[in-house]
Design brief:
Blueprint: H1 5-31, E1 44-45, E2 58-62, H2 74-82, E3 85-88, H3 91-98, E4 100-102, E5 110-113, H4 121-127, H5 129-132, E6 135-140, E7 143-150, E8 156-164, E9 167-169, H6 175-181, H7 183-205
Parallel strand pairs: 1-2
Antiparallel strand pairs: 2-3, 4-9, 5-8, 6-7, 7-8
Helix pairs in contact: 1-2, 1-7
């Protein structure tokens, strides 16, 4: 029994962690916009134990892929369980989680694009050289609005950028709030895992295979 205890413990602890990570991931993504976390040019939230390149737009649920361990490898595999974590290398996500004010580091204004795919004015000029020739800046209070003038006879101004000295970010991510909300369910899952672990150990003690 003593020889098999660590391998049985690994199996049940690993399954509990997988379940906790998975339930959090699903509940959290459900609160976000439809495309959030599902690839494309936005944030990528990897599945539990899925490897991928870490960038400032990724969230990883790090967990060993091995569902069971052998007697010879159990110490090494338990070390991997100790390294299980949820990790994001993104200041953007941190701002959305904690809130706060964003200010430009070097420029006077933060430039916010409106209804197009260019991230800044320089990129807009590169992508849309003809449209860029019609840009007009208008100051309104603390803001600067940059318009694109369209039409030949009847001209219309369409806003393409807003420049502001700072942006206040609301707490919209709800990452930790989701984790706390699932605490009761996690505790129940851990009790179930501990019960199954105890039952498996008792079977081994009685000379049966778990």
């Amino acid at each position: 029994m003593a020889e098999q205890s660590p391998t049985l413990a690994y199996k049940h602890i690993r399954e509990f962690l997988f379940l906790a990570w998975h339930k959090h991931r699903m509940a959290w993504l459900k609160l976000q916009k439809p495309k959030f976390g599902r690839g494309g040019k936005g944030v990528k939230v990897y599945k539990v134990a899925q490897n991928g390149k870490r960038t400032y737009k990724t969230v990883h649920y790090t967990l060993s892929k091995k569902r069971e361990s052998t007697k010879s490898a159990v110490r090494r595999d338990f070390a991997k369980l100790d390294q299980a974590e949820i990790r994001a290398d993104s200041m953007i996500l941190k701002l959305l989680e904690e809130g706060g004010t964003t200010k430009p580091k070097s420029a006077r204004y933060l430039t916010i694009p409106m209804r197009h795919r260019a991230r800044n004015i320089e990129e807009f000029r590169t992508k849309y050289p003809k449209r860029a020739k019609t840009l007009v800046r208008k100051k309104r209070g603390s803001q600067v609005r940059i318009y694109e003038i369209k039409g030949k006879r009847k001209k219309k101004a369409r806003i393409v950028f807003i420049q502001v000295p700072s942006v206040k970010n609301r707490k919209t991510l709800m990452f930790y709030k989701t984790w706390r909300r699932l605490k009761r369910e996690r505790n129940r899952d851990w009790r179930n895992a501990a019960t199954r672990m105890h039952e498996d150990l008792r079977m081994v003690l009685n000379g049966k295979s778990a």
